Amino acid sequence: MGNNILYIEDNPDNMMLVKRALESRGYKLLEAMTGMTGVEKAETEDVDLILLDINLPDIDGYEVARRIRGSNRKTALAYLPIIAVTANALKGDAEKAVAAGCDVYMSKPINIRELWARVEAFVPSPHVK
Ligand code: MN
Prior knowledge:
The chain is an alpha/beta fold. It has a single domain (about 5-25, about 35-120), classed as Response regulator (Rossmann fold, 3-Layer(aba) Sandwich). About 40% of the residues lie in helices and about 20% in strands. The radius of gyration is 13 Å and the shape is globular.
């Protein structure tokens, strides 16, 4: 298993925060700033886990999750871990994310320790042997 994390997120500040946090633990971050780019990268790049923002400029995160789960370009996408990163956990975003195919969710603002724990639950850090 590799350690490639795809983060689908349109906010550059969140992207930079997560990039630094995950690279400090030895992961490699692949970036997608739109939903469609995210689906494309999930289908074509070597990805071990996806972090998925819900509010995106084109298709939303729910649609991204549904397209990834329903993709017939790579069978592993049916089981690839997807962590939704939701801004409105109290408004039902989390339940909708799980219904769309995400495995778990975490709330914004992003807590780095929670991020590490959530990611490591699926993909062990290369730094922890
Ligand atoms: Mn967003």
